[in-house]
């Protein structure tokens, strides 16, 4: 599947104005999603494997080191234990996670570790997580990261533009980032836990897509509230709206807070129901997660052996 | 399919819930079910099959209860009544609590059995029907506890007969049984013939809970069993949920029997989408409105009304959503729509849709593959329809939505109210002004703002117009199972004496000075027929003549009341001012009204007391104008449910002969205090006090048409009034109960008949909140909030 990249468009404030979001209705839908669809047995195993291919395996800590990042890259290349791979009969798929996501400082290490694989390399950028450094430095930061081997850039938006409903400032900022990204794909982090209302989330989503976002992403993982189903529904409905209006498909990345295999299944069925099967592929859907993979491995082992598994039986990243 | 293939298709696969435990339960009963009477199982006879609609396979055989069996059940319930009523509220609450706990403990068994028997998706029976049923018993366990202190003037009715439908077998059972038990009634209940099984499992649960013998009796069977219940002389109340046609028959069959009645009937509920709605949310609302339970929902939002500006976008979104619905094995956990209850129902749906298409509707139907066996019908949307189409008017009771557009809020209201039904409405707008503007204007018992099909034990459920009357749930629902303790004694003899005085033709008049006229549309009018009848004094002498009203006078009076909206548009404070003014003006004319009463044989003192009481009564209801408040119900939702007291509309009131001024005022005042317009039929024998009252009305700023007063032969006037489609309620105080109730079935108007004598001077009988409750109906407006 080749997805034609979203080129962005002129800022259309009429579209932004007309956005309506009913929080209670969104919450009801979010609540029933998990109960409306259920995948079991063989299908569940396949869906969990699919989820692995969608993970942006992430480390974004002040105490990150080269050796720690190498270990993470090793995990990305071999996300599940070899005997489980055999038991599932998927040796020839050479399953990996979708990407590795790190700070700029770790890019060279990660790029070397990932050489020869299809695993994408993402760098958080633009003064992540607060995004309050000078604009020219943020643009420079993107360029440096692309130069250092990142093919995906996760930018953060300036939240005050949302609070002041200064959509043109937000648009200009994101558009400038997109230009700086060049060939690298841009994920725009809205910091949904901070911009607070679903109406803000929806409007910021649309502005970012107009400015040329390849993905819209919920959070930095540093806020107290990260990805939630209601926020996700709000954002992906804007993706659907953008596609209906422009024909371009924009990707979605929920980040932070998704740590259970079961949650991943709900997310997948939500993408399938609200947007369609195209959004079950890494081109258009990623999980920003660090501990999700571990739980998926345990569930896969349970699927194979019939026994509940333990975390220490699976390699850490 | 291996894992690699699934990774390509990303299908859901199957996720079946096991039917084993439910089938085992049926096998324990040898798949041959009994009636539950007097705490025991009665094998019964004339068994018929109960099938799984998703497969057509027979689940069990169910017995057809005949008259004899129903008799046994009623006897058992009667026998259990004194003991059950003697229990404290707390003791009854413990039984309800135990029942709730036991359903909870067996919740999956209930859910699976329900899905097998009814064909609804397991997700719905598991996540909606069963939890709501449990919630109903917990909620009413609380009411049982509070009954003595919260309803000190009320008592249980006695043996109640309950007939429930097949669309929510367990939930409707809970809605019926929980309030009846909480209030101290004993029960004979009949589940629908298609879906008897969970009711029998429920009976077993009650056995386990140690519910005293005979308090609950479950008899199974078809409509003929229902008929035996409806016609049983010892049953004091019928609670029915089902079709409007059957509801109408029940109203006729119970006419004059004194049975209390609550009817939850059909609907064609409007689903209004304003241009400023969250359209994606509203699309999901439509799914929950019409594709929930295969659309077999009385309150289903089956008439979509979309504002023109967004109609095209909305339809596009809706159709694309419709194609994503999964239809199939109801026991599969990933199924959105299961099976239609019965092949006959499926054919009915199909033929109505065909009729719609033949009439020019555009058919949009899900192309999802339907199971090859079993009884299924695809989700359907009909556009290009108009109010004149049958598919827009008739309840289809299937997954079929009809869609029309509107331009303005007032057009939305006009379209929404263009229906015989009035069960529910759903309003979608992000503008609070718009939503709160529309909610009071749509004629419905339940209004959901930015939500739909929300139900809870704490909020009343029930309709207006031909969707029936009575409420289930909430405080308002308890009154359906209670009666006032006031002492009443029959006055048949008195009536006979009074009726003798009535005459039909002109007789000689002695010393008459003026002819009292009728009062219609704010004007004094002569009777249409040109006849009068003689009015006698206490000595039997003719003192004057009064107009002999006929059906045309009724027509004119109802027309005047129906088209005069200004009274209903006045706020409570304004109505209160007018009513105080009425009291004041009556007080100026004390002597005149007392003299009139004396001419009927009142002593001077009696006459003065009655006039004085009438003035006080006007003040009493004037005081109530702005105090008969609704409620905010505590439902488990972030939001408010407002239970609003709304006027009923046009009320026809037939006044009794006793206390001719005071009874007239006592019935008129609560009706208009709550914002209704009235057509008053004056006492036949003593109409003059009522007819004189126009002078007070004329001088008190009462808008024309608010109060209309006609006189004449009670029986002659009853028929056109009780049968009038534009009269919303009839209060018949006198002897016409059977006629009135039978005729009221035409448009299912609310009827209040009283054959017994009230002491109107006694404030415990002649006034009170009972009158206000009769003058209003509760509209529950659900408004979730949050930003």
TrEMBL record, chain A:
Matching Pfam families: DeoC
Pathway(s) it belongs to: Carbohydrate degradation; 2-deoxy-D-ribose 1-phosphate degradation; D-glyceraldehyde 3-phosphate and acetaldehyde from 2-deoxy-alpha-D-ribose 1-phosphate: step 2/2
Keyword Lyase among UniProt keywords: yes
Gene3D superfamilies membership: Aldolase class I (3.20.20.70)
Enzyme Commission number(s): 4.1.2.4
Catalytic reaction equation(s): 2-deoxy-D-ribose 5-phosphate = D-glyceraldehyde 3-phosphate + acetaldehyde
Keyword Lyase appears in the UniProt entry: yes
Similarity comment: Belongs to the DeoC/FbaB aldolase family. DeoC type 2 subfamily.
Protein name (Swiss-Prot/TrEMBL): Deoxyribose-phosphate aldolase
Organism phylogeny: Bacteria, Pseudomonadati, Pseudomonadota, Gammaproteobacteria, Lysobacterales
From TrEMBL, chain B:
Keyword Oxidoreductase: yes
Residues of the active site: 264
Domain Aldehyde dehydrogenase: 44-485, 535-737
Keyword Signal: no
Annotated signal sequence range: none
GO MF, one annotated term: oxidoreductase activity, acting on the aldehyde or oxo group of donors, NAD or NADP as acceptor
Keywords: Oxidoreductase
InterPro entries tied to this protein: Ald_DH/histidinol_DH, Ald_DH_C, Ald_DH_CS_GLU, Ald_DH_N, Aldehyde_DH, Aldehyde_DH_dom
Domain of life: Bacteria
Record family assignment: Belongs to the aldehyde dehydrogenase family.
Family annotation (PANTHER family): ALDEHYDE DEHYDROGENASE-RELATED
Record protein name field: Aldehyde dehydrogenase (NAD+)
């Amino acid at each position: 599947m080749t997805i034609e990249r979203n080129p962005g468009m002129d800022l259309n404030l009429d579209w932004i104005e007309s956005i309506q979001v009913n929080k209670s209705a969104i919450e009801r839908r979010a609540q029933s999603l998990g109960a409306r669809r259920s995948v079991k047995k063989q299908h569940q195993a396949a869906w969990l494997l699919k989820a692995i291919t969608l993970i942006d395996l992430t480390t974004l800590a002040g105490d990150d080191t080269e050796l720690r990042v190498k270990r993470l890259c090793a995990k990305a290349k071999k996300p599940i234990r070899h005997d489980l791979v055999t038991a599932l009969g998927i040796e020839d798929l050479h399953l990996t996670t979708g990407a590795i996501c790190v700070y700029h400082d770790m890019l060279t290490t990660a790029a070397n570790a990932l050489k020869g694989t299809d695993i994408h390399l993402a760098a958080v950028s633009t003064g992540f997580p607060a995004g309050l450094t000078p604009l020219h430095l943020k643009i420079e930061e993107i360029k440096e990261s692309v130069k250092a081997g990142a093919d995906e850039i996760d930018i953060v938006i300036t939240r005050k533009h949302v609070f002041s409903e200064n959509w043109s400032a937000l648009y200009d900022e994101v558009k400038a980032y997109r230009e700086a990204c060049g060939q690298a794909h841009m994920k725009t982090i809205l910091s949904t836990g901070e911009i607070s209302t679903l109406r803000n989330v929806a409007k910021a989503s649309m502005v970012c897509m107009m400015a040329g976002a390849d993905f819209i992403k919920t959070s930095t993982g540093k806020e107290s509230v990260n990805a939630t189903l209601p926020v996700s529904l709000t954002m992906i409905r804007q993706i659907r709206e953008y596609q209906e209006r422009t024909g371009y498909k924009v990707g979605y990345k929920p980040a932070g807070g998704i740590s259970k295999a079961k949650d991943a299944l709900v997310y997948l069925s939500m993408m399938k129901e609200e947007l369609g099967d195209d959004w079950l592929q890494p081109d258009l859907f990623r999980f920003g997660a660090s501990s999700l993979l571990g739980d998926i491995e345990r569930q896969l082992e349970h699927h194979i052996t019939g026994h509940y598994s333990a975390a220490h039986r699976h390699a850490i990243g | 399919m291996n894992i690699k293939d699934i990774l390509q298709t990303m299908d859901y696969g199957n996720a079946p819930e096991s039917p084993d435990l439910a089938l085992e339960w049926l096998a324990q009963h040898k798949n041959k079910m009994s009636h539950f009477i007097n705490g025991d199982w009665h094998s019964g006879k004339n068994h018929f099959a109960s099938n799984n609609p998703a497969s057509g396979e027979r689940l069990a055989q169910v017995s057809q209860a005949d008259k004899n069996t129903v008799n046994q059940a009623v006897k058992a319930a009667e026998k259990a009544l004194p003991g059950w009523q003697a229990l404290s509220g707390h003791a009854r609450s413990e039984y309800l609590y135990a029942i709730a706990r036991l359903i909870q403990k067996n919740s999956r068994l209930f859910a699976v059995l329900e899905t097998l028997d009814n064909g609804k998706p397991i997700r719905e029976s598991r996540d909606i029907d069963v939890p709501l049923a449990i919630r109903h018993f917990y909620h009413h366990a609380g009411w049982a506890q509070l009954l003595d202190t919260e309803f000190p003037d009320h008592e249980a009715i006695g043996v109640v007969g309950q007939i429930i439908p097949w669309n929510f077998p367990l939930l409707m059972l809970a809605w019926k049984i929980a309030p009846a038990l909480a209030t101290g009634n004993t029960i004979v209940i009949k589940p629908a013939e298609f879906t008897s099984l969970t009711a029998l499992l429920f009976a077993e649960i009650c056995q386990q809970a140690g519910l005293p013998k005979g308090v609950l009796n479950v008899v199974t069977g078809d409509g003929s069993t229902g008929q035996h219940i409806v016609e049983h002389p010892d049953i004091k109340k019928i609670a029915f949920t089902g079709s409007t046609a059957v509801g109408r028959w029940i109203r006729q069959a119970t006419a004059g029997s004194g049975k209390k009645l609550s009817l939850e009937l059909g609907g064609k509920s409007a689903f209004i989408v304003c241009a400023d709605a969250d359209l994606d949310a509203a699309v999901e609302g439509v799914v929950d409105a019409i594709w929930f339970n295969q659309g077999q929902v009385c309150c289903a939002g089956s008439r979509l009304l979309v504002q023109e500006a967004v109609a095209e976008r909305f339809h596009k979104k809706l159709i694309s959503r419709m194609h994503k619905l999964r239809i199939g094995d109801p026991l599969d956990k990933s199924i959105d729509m299961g099976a239609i209850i019965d092949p006959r129902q499926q054919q009915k749906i199909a033929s109505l849709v065909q009729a719609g298409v033949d009439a020019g509707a555009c058919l949009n139907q899900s192309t999802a593959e339907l199971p090859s066996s079993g009884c299924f019908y695809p989700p359907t949307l009909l556009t290009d329809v108009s109010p004149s189409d049958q598919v827009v008017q008739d309840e289809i009771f299937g997954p079929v939505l009809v869609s029309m557009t509107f331009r303005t809020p007032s057009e939305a209201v006009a379209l929404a109210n263009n229906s015989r039904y009035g069960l529910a409405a759903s309003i979608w707008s992000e503008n609070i002004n718009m939503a709160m503007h529309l909610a009071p204007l749509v004629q419905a018992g339940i209004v959901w703002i930015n939500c739909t099909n929300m139900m809870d034990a704490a909020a009343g459920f029930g309709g207006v117009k031909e969707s029936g009357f009575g409420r289930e749930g909430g405080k308002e629902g308890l009154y359906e199972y209670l009666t006032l303790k006031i002492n009443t004694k029959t006055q048949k003899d008195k009536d006979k004496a009074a009726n003798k005085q009535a005459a039909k033709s002109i007789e000689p008049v002695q010393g008459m000075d003026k002819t009292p006229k009728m009062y219609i549309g704010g004007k004094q009018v002569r009777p249409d027929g040109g006849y009068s009848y003689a009015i006698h004094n206490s000595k039997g002498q003719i003192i004057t003549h009064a107009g002999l009203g006929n059906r045309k006078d009724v027509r004119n009076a109802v027309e005047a009341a129906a088209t005069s909206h200004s009274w209903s548009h006045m706020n409570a404070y304004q109505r209160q001012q007018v009513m105080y003014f009425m009291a004041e003006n009556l007080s100026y004319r004390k002597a005149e009204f007392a003299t009139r009463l004396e001419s009927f044989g009142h002593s001077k003192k009696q006459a003065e007391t009655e006039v004085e009481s009438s003035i006080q009564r006007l003040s009493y209801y004037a005081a109530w104008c702005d105090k008969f408040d609704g409620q905010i119900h505590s439902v488990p939702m972030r939001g408010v449910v407002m239970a609003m007291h709304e006027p009923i509309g046009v009320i026809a009131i037939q006044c009794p002969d006793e206390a001719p001024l005071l009874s007239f005022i006592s019935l008129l005042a609560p009706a208009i205090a709550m914002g209704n317009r009235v057509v008053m039929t004056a006492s036949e024998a003593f109409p003059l006090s009522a007819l004189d009252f126009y002078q007070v009305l004329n001088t008190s700023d009462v808008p024309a048409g608010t109060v209309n007063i006609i006189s004449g032969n009670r029986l002659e006037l009853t028929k056109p009034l009780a049968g009038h489609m534009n009269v919303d309620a009839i209060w018949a105080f006198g002897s016409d109960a059977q006629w009135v109730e039978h005729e009221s079935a035409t448009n299912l108007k609310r009827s209040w008949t009283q054959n017994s004598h009230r002491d109107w001077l006694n404030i415990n009988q002649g006034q009170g909140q009972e009158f206000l409750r009769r003058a209003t109906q509760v509209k529950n407006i659900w408004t979730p909030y949050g930003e």
